[in-house]
Amino acid sequence: MKFGIVTFPGSNCDYDAYHAVTEILGEEAVYLWHKDHDLQNADVIVLPGGFSYGDYLRAGAIARFSPIMQEVAAHAKAGGPVLGVCNGFQILCEAHLLPGALMRNASLQFVSAPVFLRVENNHTLFTNLYESSEVLKIPVAHGDGRYYAAPEVLDALEAGDRVIFRYADASGNISADANPNGSERNIAGIINEQGNVLGLMPHPERACSPLLGSEDGVRLLESILSRVAA
Amino acid sequence: MARFRLAVRIVPRKGLLDPQGKAVSDALHTLGFDEVGAVHVGRYILIETSADDALAAGERVKEMCRKLLANPVTEDFEVESAVPA
Fold first, then answer.
1. A57–B20: do the CB atoms touch at under 8 Å?
2. CATH number, position A207
3. How many Cβ contacts (< 8 angstroms) between chains A and B?
4. Contact criterion met (CB below 8 Å) for B53 and B10
5. Which of A38, A163, A227, B48 is deepest in the core (most CB within 10 A)?
6. pLDDT per residue of chain B (85 residues) written in tens, 0 to 9
7. Range of the domain at A204
């Protein structure tokens, strides 16, 4: 399977994603330049973390209008898998491929730390190798990660089982203390209605080896492999 | 076509948590400005552009706000009337 990893000016996790796909997963990956209109026949698109366009205006606001994003949106509409991590999640929200927005952390501080996530739905393209309610240890590194959407949007996300990950403690309890950024209802990751576009603030690609402190991110990528025919 | 300058004010939507505004309000209280209530921090954008008249310039800038300058989920915007640039 071929992964296309988009590089925007200011992306800084594109190499991490490339490493996870090629070295850990053993699959093919290509970098996709933001100015190009060509997805190079990639099966899965990854929008990596970083600070695209310096986070000018709002995180993800300008990246959304990159030439490559028109192709990514078309790929998503055609049912192709798209994974947005951190800044990639912010871009997906700005592009209206996912509802809501990521706002400044409630603490006003940049948070760089391992956090615990509870898997809220393990019947998706991206989570089918996790157990239901499994607790994962995955790092976050962001200043604008507070997920916000209007209450009726949040209700619809929950009713549709589209909240995929929530910030939790090590035992899987959802609490304000376990919420690193003040996200509404401890939401760390959501999926679109069709189930092919996932956005999350934590970095699964940085949790792919015991050397990095956790391997819990690997199965997210493996889940995609197990579902999508190469 | 004439040149115009317009100012856009973008503020966090009322009722949403605004930690920046809260931090500034707290700092003002620390400095003795006890009379200060809520504070909100937003953005101020100056745009120079061309249009047939001031009204048309304003309409175009509103479109810019809806498409890019403001996030419709979290922010409100106000376009100040166009002045000749």
1. no
2. 3.40.50.880
3. 35
4. no
5. A163
6. 999 999 999 999 988 999 999 999 999 999 999 999 999 999 999 999 999 999 999 999 999 999 999 999 999 999 998 999 8
7. 2-227
Give the pLDDT of residue B81.
84
A208 carries an active-site annotation: no
**Residue range A32-52: mean pLDDT, rounded:** 97
Query: Which chain B residues touch A57 with a CB distance below 8 Å?
Result: 43, 68-69
* Segment A212-219 mean pLDDT: 95
What pLDDT score does A230 carry? 45
Task: Average the pLDDT over A66-93 and give the result.
Answer: 98
Q: Residue A115 — very low, low, confident or very high, per pLDDT cuts 50/70/90?
A: very high
Nearest CA-CA distance, residue B43 and chain A, Å: 9
- Which residue among A58, A61, A108 places its CB closest to the CB of B20? A108
DSSP E strands in chain A: the ranges are: 2-7, 28-33, 44-47, 82-85, 101-103, 111-119, 135-142, 146-148, 163-168, 187-191, 197-200
Q: Where do the domains of chain B lie? A: 2-84
Domain count for chain A? 1
With CB atoms and an 8 Å threshold, state whether B19 touches A108: yes
- What kind of architecture, by CATH, is found in domain B2-84? 2-Layer Sandwich (3.30)
Interface test with A, best of B13, B41, B66, B73 (most A CBs within 10 A): B73
The answer for A161, left when phi > 0, alpha when psi is -120 to 50, beta otherwise, is left
- CA dist B23 to A55, A102, A112, A192, B13, Å? 21, 19, 21, 34, 17
